[in-house]
Amino acid sequence: EGASVPTTSTAATSSYSCDPNTCKAPTCMCASQSPPGGLSPKDVPQMVVVTFDDSIQDSLYQTAKKMLSTTKPFGLILIQCYRYVSMEYTDFSLVQQWYASGNEIADHTYSHVGSPSAKEISSCKSMLNTYGGIPKGKIQGFRAPFLNYTKETLSNIAEQSFLYDSSASGVTDDAYWPYTLDNGMANDCWTGICASGQVKLPGVWEVPMYAVLDNKSIPQLMDVYLAGEPQDVTQWSLDAFNKKYEGNRQPFGIYVHPTHLTTYPGLPDPKPMLDGVLSFLQTIAAKPDVWFVTNQQLLQWMKNPVKASEFGQQDYMKCQQPVIAKEICNGLDDDHNNQIDDNLLNNCNFGTSNFKTCFNCPNGAPSLADPTPASAAQSGSAGYRYPVPDNCDSTWWDPIGNACLCTTTDCQYKEVVVTKPTASNSSVNPLGAKETSTQTISAASPSS
């Protein structure tokens, strides 16, 4: 069935209306259940987004990594995922490792409150940059704590130059492809957010969170594995996935709080639930033209849709890591001794607040009012760590030597994941991922 772009898009139970003749990619997109760009569904890559919410700690990080490696039997080296981060209890060295491994980091507020202020949002972003080394231009996404977004929340992220929000739910009739808020919100209309004049934020995208219907047709959104026995949840998830895969191929989402899938002494063993999630991931990864992406990659495709056969050749789908001769504090194992940033991390201890970082420890515990206090080390002293500049990606930045190791067009990258075959030639290795030799290519700007 061919995909057609309607002359108007109107969401039920709302006053949402959008004219695609005036709202055009790449800067504007109407809410629609049909693929963008007039593509036929059979030509659309089936994109899957896996997200992890809340703080990053070692035990939770290990759980997330199990999900990252689950499709290795199919050749995928690294699933692209992204994580919404709240600042309390977060280890910033793991934030940097997550980003350096090719994943996305997004904002989830400083202290995970139900009605976040503008300061809650900006403080989180500042700490991710200062202590996690995430380039400012790469912190593009936001998710509201408890999914409790409001008109004010969306206005705040627009004022702070975020690219997208991913807090609204899409069930059946409102399972839209991502769209911009130029013409308002088209999801979760029961909150009143879709009423005329409530939200009009040009250029800000909404990436809906796509629900799974259980056996009673009740929408399950985050942590679907908690809603029933693993075999039942797997079947519900497969049914929801196949509906998209065999339909208009809207993105499919798997939304996780790793704490539910992590083993803790004295609590029930979560292994059956985790095994169910891993089995589901393996099943869908084996299908032709299924791609695990970040929301940033998804939106890059939305702005310029291409067929599944061309998807892997896009620059934003390359999975590359820098080739660096010595170990620098960048979240990677540069010298290949199986230790990341070995003996280079700073330990910042403030009683109940402790974290590791490649950058300077503050001279006092961060707070909402002062998320990035002055550093304990003096600029220019032997122990001082230099912040990531806006014109260098943190994977190339040496914070101790104060040098960007990629300043010309001859930066060396190792290709970790390459393009996957199309349905016609994917019988042997459906994901087609492999390692390739080192390449010398031009470095991308961290703000791209």
UniProtKB/TrEMBL annotation:
MF annotations from Gene Ontology: hydrolase activity, acting on carbon-nitrogen (but not peptide) bonds
Gene3D superfamilies cross-referenced by the UniProt entry: Glycoside hydrolase/deacetylase (3.20.20.370)
GO biological process: one example: carbohydrate metabolic process
Region (Disordered): 422-448
NodB homology domain sequence ranges: 45-157
Signal peptide positions (record): none
Record-linked PANTHER family: CHITIN DEACETYLASE-LIKE 4, PTHR45985
Protein name, as recorded: NodB homology domain-containing protein
Organism field: Phycomyces blakesleeanus (strain ATCC 8743b / DSM 1359 / FGSC 10004 / NBRC 33097 / NRRL 1555)
